[in-house]
Every structure is written in structure tokens, then in C-alpha cells.
Amino acid sequence: MGGHRQTPMAGETPRKAGVVALVGHPNVGKSTLFEALTGHRVIAANYPGTTVEIVRAFGRRLDDTFIDSPGILSFPSRTEDEQATVRVLLDSAPVGVLQVGDAKNLRRTLLVTVQLAEMGLPLTLALNMADEAEDRGMPDRAEELSRLLGIPVVATTAVRGEGIGTLEEAMRAPRTPSIRVGYPEPIEAALRRLAEILPDGSLSERSVALLFLAGDPVADEWVRDHLDGRRVGEMVRLRKNAAEELGSSLSSAILAARIAIVDSLLADGIGTSVIGEQIRNRRISRLTTHPVWGIPLLAAVLFGLYWFVGVFGAGTLVGWLEGALFGEYINPWLSAGLDRIVALDWLRDLLVGEYGLWTMGMTYALALILPIVATFFFAFGLLEDSGYLPRLAVLTNRIFKAMGLNGTAVVPMVLGLGCVTMATMTTRILSSKRDRLLVILLLALGVPCSAQLGVVMGMVGGISMTALMIWGFVVAGVLVAVGWLAARLVPGDRSVFVAELPPMRRPPMRPLVLKTVARVEWYLREVLPLFLVGSVLLFALDRLDALQWLVGVAEPLVVDWLRLPAEAATAFMMGFFRRDFGATGLFLIAGAGLLTPLQIVVSMTTITLFVPCVASVLMIAKERGAKTAAAVTALVFPLAILIGGLLSRALEFVGWGA
Amino acid sequence: MHGACTLACCPECGYTTVDIGRSRSAGLLAKLFSSRKPETIVAATLDVAALGEDVAIAGFAENMTTGHRELLRAYGIEPGRMVRVGQHSPVTVVRVDETEIALEADLARLIFIGAAP
Known about the structure:
The complex is a heterodimer.
Chain A: E1 19-24, H1 30-38, E2 55-58, E3 65-68, H2 80-91, E4 96-102, H3 106-117, E5 123-128, H4 130-135, H5 142-149, E6 153-155, H6 164-171, H7 185-197, H8 205-213, H9 217-226, H10 229-246, H11 250-270, H12 280-288, H13 294-341, H14 345-352, H15 357-386, H16 388-402, H17 410-415, H18 420-426, H19 433-446, H20 450-463, H21 465-489, E7 498-501, H22 509-543, H23 546-561, H24 568-577, H25 579-591, H26 597-608, H27 614-624, H28 626-654
Parallel strand pairs in A: 1-3, 1-4, 4-5, 5-6
Antiparallel strand pairs in A: 2-3
Helix pairs in contact in A: 2-9, 3-11, 7-8, 7-10, 8-9, 13-15, 13-20, 15-20, 15-22, 18-27, 19-21, 20-21, 20-25, 20-26, 21-26, 23-24, 24-25, 25-26, 26-28, 27-28
Chain B: E1 7-9, E2 16-18, H1 24-33, E3 54-60, H2 66-75, E4 82-87, E5 92-96, E6 99-103, H3 105-108, E7 111-115
Antiparallel strand pairs in B: 1-2, 3-4, 3-7, 4-5, 5-6
């Protein structure tokens, strides 16, 4: 393997600097290559759909702005993340495209190449994951492909930085591919007429016309934005006539013609792999999705996660940091110091009082949340990079089917265990509006984010495994019941499950550690200001005696309905702000011995079912509109309180944990 | 037909009958009272292909949506191509070239297959 510079082509001239879009299938290493070209860190992982939004960064050695786009299977776009890629091509006026393809799946790679070729943009092809192709005994076909397509083709292994220099050299002089796809005459006739109507844009008129004929929603929107109503009407009429004349789906006929070209290219000597023999990773892959062995394997993974995050992170590390470092050294030392130098009582209280910026805001964020999210993000990254997450979709498809969804929904749900706000954005990978709405509701309702999960594991797991199972069953039961009901109320049919399973890989340690650090940094940046603002808010309410009043208002619910001590009302007030903030408050109340095991399970279950945080509500509003965000919030809070009260009575009834 | 409805209705004459493929209870009763096996097997479909076998994709059922047809073809599951069948439960998993694709039985049974050449 190894990247190599292709022979310079006749007439090759250096291009002007500008925007270069990275385009390719999902999970072929676009984000890793983007990082290698720009030095800009983006989260990459081993499952399709890691990138759901556009990221821009300036090249390290090339004077270009690179755009990392979400993966696209083929044009026209089917999902919201694929639509983002079409928007990049139509609207960002790229001076070139870097196609990132999978070196071991040439047929699929070429299917995208022929579509990019039609766009008339200078193209460079990176055959990434060349190491995996080599492991499978496949020869390096970059040179053959370069000759056939008339563009620079470079073999790369982005994760190891191999072939990057050669690729950068090749990208200085990309070329427009020499392939032209011929379509059935009704389509060709329509293309000629449409090309006359379409305005100039960054892509060839033929390719925009093809997107329009195939029914791409972004191309439709682009046409309506750039043409008057009469011309749009003319285009729609041409599309309808072409479909009638053809007698079948235009998009299917367009795809068939492209596949035929790819087949002919492959017949021209490039060839493709035959179905290879079993290798070790495939056997592991088979075990992870096995109907019998997959379940104990999943249980082992969950237990490992529980041990690492709940026992080691939330127990041992929090004990060292919160109990010893902050509790015995930093906080007493800071309080004593401030007692000496700060004369104003209120200022001292603001800094190191009960709701102080340091004693509450910073201590919560650094001593309680930091070790939990760090251990979670490390374990989660390990699962992501191994390729295990998409296999969960296979195992859980039946459960999601009961909720009117399919297994693909597990990806945003599991990502929600990291951060629900991010996961809400990831719902773009789902194929229908209905699925996205249902998953957003479930995410807001009962998927605890990493910090909260760690607190739950530490608190509830600290009581007994039974307590943890009660919490898990109630939360999962509510999710399934609400999902089942919502699926029947939200109009539309369920999407059938089809998904690509990436190869199982041994995660390389360096990217895993860097990814964990980047995520922790991002998390603290988001959490720290909110925790500080939350502390100031509680401090102000306390000073104005409004906190007691608010707690008094909340008391009937907290004390009479949830049957928790009055002190828990403050934690629930914090929970309105951020669920994990509230959970951390409950953690401290439980630490002070104010909660019985029953009350710990009830309080944790209730707060798990709260809306995650202000940021997640804003994200729902951004993704699905303010009305949806308001409806989700209005549904979730009362439901959480209702379930908490019922659970309290049910546990009392059976005599558990009183 | 509504997603949960298990009846099929003729749009011309209004005659209504049970869609055995969609109604579990009707399907069970039909199996119980069936006196003989079907006389002919129309075509083998991917959901019943033997595990570990290489099979050729022969075509798609007419009632498969255009969206699914195009999605499968983009994945490389298209007439004339070979796939290797990995498993059927909890979902069907096939390998096309070096990619594993998982698909539900509802979709796999709309894909006709033939023996490897």
C-alpha cells in the first residue's frame, strides 16, 4: 500500500484556491481525512452517520477551505444529512471535489464517482482505507482507475496519515473526469430542454437537471429559489412528460444507467473483489449480531460500561476528587482564605457558600461531572470506533419495531447517552420525518446523558443491582410505552430496516484518547457556564427568599406526590435547568443520608424522565420547530412527575427499599 | 391500506378478504386447517436463502417501493449481483463485495434469488 502520486496529465494546470468539498459514502473516513488535511479536529467514528452537519476549515498545506460533508449513498438525497451534502455542492461554489472512497468497495465508490463526474467539477479521488484492502489481498488499483477516469487517484490510509502528502500534491491539479453517462432518450430529451432553462450555477446544468428529474428535494428547492414560477412550472411539466414517456420511475432509470457505466468500467480491467473468505473480524462481527450469542455479549458490554463509568468513574474517581481533593483540601482552603480577605458576607457566599460559584458550580462540574463524562466518553469512543454501535441496531430492531421505528433509531438513542443535544441533531440520519419526531421525543423523555448516567450508576447502582434494574426497567418501559403510543398517533408508516454494518475494528488508542479529550473539553465548555449561571440563579433566589417560596410551591409535588424530603425540591428546581445538575444535587442529598433507597430510585427515575437541558430544548426547536419543542416539554415534565409518584407507591406497596 | 389493517379490498368491486401475510391469527388458522402443501413454489426469496451460501439476486417483487429498490441498488444489491447470506435472525445480513448490509425480513422477502452461476 501507500499513496503514490499519479503521473501528471497532459494539460494539467494548477487551479485557483477556493472551497473544496469532501464527498463520499458514509463511513469511508471523510472526517479523518478532513482532519489530516486541515488539522481541524472533528469527531470521527466507525459507523455511518457520524457527520450530520457541515464543517469548514482551512487547509494545512493547501490554500483551500475544505468542507467535510455528511456521507451520501447516491444522488438523489434521501435523508436530511444527505441533503446537507447536496446543498454544499449546489450553494458553496466549490472549485473542486475530493471524493473519499472505500478502497475495498470499488463498485460503490465508482457509483458516486460517475455522479460527481456529471457535475463538471475538478475531481480528485482518495481511495481510503487502503490498508484494509491490502489486508484482504486486493491490489492497489489507483493507477488503473486514474487512467480510466482521467483524474488523480491516490491510495490513502487516513487514520495512519498514509498517502496524505501525495494526495495534497495531487489535489493541486485535479481534473474533470472524462466519463459521460448516456440515459434513455426521454430523459436525454428532457435534460436538453432543462439545461436551457436552468440558470448558471456551480454545477453543470446537466447534473442539476438530473437531480431535478430524479426528484432530489434540495434540487427542487434550489430551482424554485432561482427561477420564476413560469419556468419552474415548465420544468415540472418536462419532468412529468419524461416520466410518462419512459413509463417507469425516472430516478430508477437514471440509477440503472449509472450502474451500467460502473459495470462497464469494472469490465474494462479494474475488476472488483470476489466475496472473500472469512476473516477473524467477520467472526466477531457475526457473534455481535447473533440472535443467541449477541445478547450475552451485549450484557457483557453493558456491564463493562457500568463498571467503568458507574463504579470506577462515579465511585472511585469522584471519591478521590470530590471527597478528598475538593472536600478535604481545595474547598476548605479556599473558604478559609476568602474568610480572611473578603469582608462582604454576600460576596463570600456567592463564591463559597451553599450555592457558591466555586462550591456548587465548579465543584459539581470538575469534581463530580468531569470524571464521569471522561470515563463515559472513553468507553463510548471504544464502542464507536470498534463498529459495535450499528450492530446494536440489528439486535434491537425488534424492540424498536414495537415502537413503530426500526433499529437505526438506536444510533441517536445511544449517542444520547453521551449528550442528548448532539443526538437530537443526529436524528437527521433517519429516513422519515415521522421517525425523527418519535426519536426526538424519546431522547427528550428518557435517555440520560453521560453525566446523569454516571450519577445514576453511582447512586442507584450503589444500593444494589435490583435498584439499578428497577430504574432501568421503569425508564425503558416508559420509553417503549410512549414510543408505542406516539407511533400510533403520529401519522405515517414505519420505515423498514436497512443498514450498512461497518467492519469490526480494533480501535487505535491515539485517536480514541484525542477524541475523548476533545469531547470532555466540549462538554465542559457547555456545562461549566450553565452550572455557574445555575449557581448564581439559585444564590439570587436564596438571597431574595424566593427559593424557599419556589420550594414551597414545589413541595406538594415533591413531598406529597413523590414522597421525597423537602430538600429534594431544590434539586428538582435545578433539574429544570439541566437534568444532570439536578441529579448531582440529589447525589449530594443522598450522600448526606437524607434519602432512603426507595427515595433514591424514585428521585433518579423522575429526574431521568425530565427534559435533558435548556440546550436540548433549543436544539429540538432548531431541528423540528418551536411548537414541537414546546409540545415535547409540556408532555415530558408532567409525565415524569406522574411516573415518579406511581413508582413510589408501587415500591411502597411491595415493601421495597423503605 | 392502513398500516395496521390486515384486510385487502378490491378497489373495483369492494370485495374484502384477509391478507394472510399481514394477519398473524389468520395466518395461523390457515396453516392449521391447510390440508396440503402449496403445489408450486413461485420463487425463492432472500429471507429463506441458505446461510453461508452465495446467491444471485434475480429481481425485486413488484410491490417493493421505488425508494427501497433504489436504496438496495445503491448498496449493490441488484439483479445479477452475487451476495453471501450471513444470517436471518434477528434480521437478514448479507455481504456484497466487502460490505455487510442488514435488512429486515419484510424487505428480504421481496428480493428474488437464484443459485450462484
